[in-house]
């Protein structure tokens, strides 16, 4: 009996001395666990006489109950002490700014935005998107587009050529299999006509390359090409498409355009298009003013190009245009130096970029 009382006193003292929940658990295991001291005592009951078992059993179970209660009470005390300690150490400064998630703080580059905007506009008019490789052959970039071999128009393109291969067709100036970085998106016209049957209605946005670098030129830039081939396509359709595109893209109700005669080997007649604008204290307004800004080249696809791409010019005709994406992005969003588009300056991107979840659509608004 005295042993039992001593054991009880000892365990209760151990419970009181347990400084944290782990220490308390150790006391529990040492007393009530499978090999604990109280469990060991309970195991001796089987060998006792019925009378002894009655009194001893009751006494041991009483100690067991007291220990169980003491453990539970101490656990509560320790738990609330731990919570108090956490609350004291983990104070929250509610005046700190809320940290934005990546989707909120990231920005879409203005070029990607403009790419999406113009795709939305032309898709709404029924155009599909065609793509081609950045590394092209001389044949697709020039020859099939009616740039005669040795013609000065080839030199106007300041081309990045790859080294010629064994093949004589890739000799410099042979106009054949020599590889180059495409100088315009027009070779995608060729690829489209070679792989699709008319009627054709595609736009071809993509990267283009020329050896050129100043405030208005970068060696790598972007163009979007448009191509329509059908039996009755004519310049009136082209003018309407470009007019509607400019109104939708610049988000104005009214725009004045000027079509000037020009020269491109792959179109006949060829035209360059200016839009009317006014520049006022760094602001630009379209549809008014004295300034004319050139934004694209276009024309009726030259019969030689149709022929080179397996389309009979006596049956089909069409028109095409090519526009600098960087240039229209700068015009619309008021950027002064083309090179900034390629600087990867995060502060610039924070200012000029767009929220990732605000995808441009005609119904929801292009740039809002
Ligand atoms: N490829 C021309 C350039 O880069 C732009 C161009 C002009 C494309 C007239 C066309 C076009 O499709 O019809 O300068």
Could you explain how this protein is built, in words?
With 368 residues, the protein is of the alpha+beta class. The protein has helices at 2-17, 21-32, 37-43, 50-89, 102-105, 110-124, 138-141, 152-155, 186-195, 235-250, 303-308, 325-333, 346-352, and strands at residues 128-129, 135-137, 179-181, 200-209, 220-230, 257-264, 267-280, 283-286, 291-301, 317-324. The strands form two sheets. Strands 1, 4, 5, 6, 7, 8, 9 and 10 form an eight-stranded mixed β-sheet that branches. β7 (267-280) and β8 (283-286) form a beta hairpin. The model has no long low-confidence stretch (mean pLDDT 92). Bound molecules: 3,4-dihydroxyphenylalanine. 3,4-dihydroxyphenylalanine is lined by residues 184, 186, 225, 264, 267, 297-299, 320-322.
Which tags fit this structure?
single chain; 368 residues; alpha+beta; BirA Bifunctional Protein, domain 2; 2 domains; eight-stranded mixed sheet; two-stranded antiparallel ribbon; 13 helices; 10 strands; 20% strand; elongated; binds 3,4-dihydroxyphenylalanine
Describe the structure concisely.
By secondary structure, the protein is an alpha+beta fold.
Q: Could you outline the blueprint of secondary structure elements for this entry?
A:
Elements: H1 2-17, H2 21-32, H3 37-43, H4 50-89, H5 102-105, H6 110-124, E1 128-129, E2 135-137, H7 138-141, H8 152-155, E3 179-181, H9 186-195, E4 200-209, E5 220-230, H10 235-250, E6 257-264, E7 267-280, E8 283-286, E9 291-301, H11 303-308, E10 317-324, H12 325-333, H13 346-352
Parallel strand pairs: 1-4
Antiparallel strand pairs: 2-3, 4-5, 5-10, 6-7, 7-8, 7-9, 9-10
Bound molecules: 3,4-dihydroxyphenylalanine (DAH).
């Amino acid at each position: 009996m005295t042993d039992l009382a001593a054991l009880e006193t000892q365990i209760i003292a151990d419970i009181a001395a347990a400084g944290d929940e782990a220490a308390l658990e150790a006391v529990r295991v040492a007393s009530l666990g499978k090999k604990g001291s109280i469990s060991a005592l309970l195991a001796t009951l089987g060998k006792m006489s019925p009378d002894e078992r009655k009194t001893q059993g009751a006494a041991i179970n009483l100690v067991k109950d007291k220990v169980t209660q003491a453990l539970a009470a101490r656990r509560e005390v320790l738990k609330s002490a731990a919570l108090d300690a956490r609350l004291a150490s983990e104070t929250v400064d509610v005046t700190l700014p809320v940290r934005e998630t990546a989707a909120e703080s990231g920005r879409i580059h203005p070029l990607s935005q403009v790419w999406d905007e113009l795709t939305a506009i032309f898709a709404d008019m029924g155009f599909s998107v065609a793509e081609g490789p950045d590394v092209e052959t001389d044949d697709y970039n020039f020859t099939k587009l009616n740039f005669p071999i040795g013609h000065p128009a080839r030199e106007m393109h300041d081309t990045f050529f790859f080294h010629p291969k064994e093949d004589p067709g890739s000799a410099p100036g042979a106009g054949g299999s020599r590889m180059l970085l495409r100088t315009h998106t027009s070779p995608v016209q060729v690829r489209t006509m070679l792989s699709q049957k008319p009627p054709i209605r595609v736009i071809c946005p993509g990267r283009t390359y020329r050896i050129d670098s100043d405030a208005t030129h970068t060696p790598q830039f972007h163009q979007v090409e448009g191509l329509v081939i059908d039996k009755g396509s004519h310049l009136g359709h082209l003018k309407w498409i470009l007019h509607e595109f400019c109104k939708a893209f610049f988000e104005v109700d009214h725009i004045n355009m000027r079509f000037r005669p020009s020269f491109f080997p792959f179109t006949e007649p060829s035209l360059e298009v200016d839009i009317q604008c006014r520049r006022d204290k760094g602001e630009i307004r379209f549809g008014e003013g004295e300034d004319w800004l050139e934004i694209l080249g276009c024309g009726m696809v030259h019969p030689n190009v149709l022929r080179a791409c397996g389309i009979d010019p006596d049956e089909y005709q069409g028109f095409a245009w090519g526009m600098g994406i960087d240039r229209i992005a700068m015009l619309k969003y008021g950027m002064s130096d083309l090179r900034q588009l390629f600087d990867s300056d995060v502060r610039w991107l924070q200012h000029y970029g767009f929220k990732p979840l605000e995808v441009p659509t005609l119904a929801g608004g292009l740039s809002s």
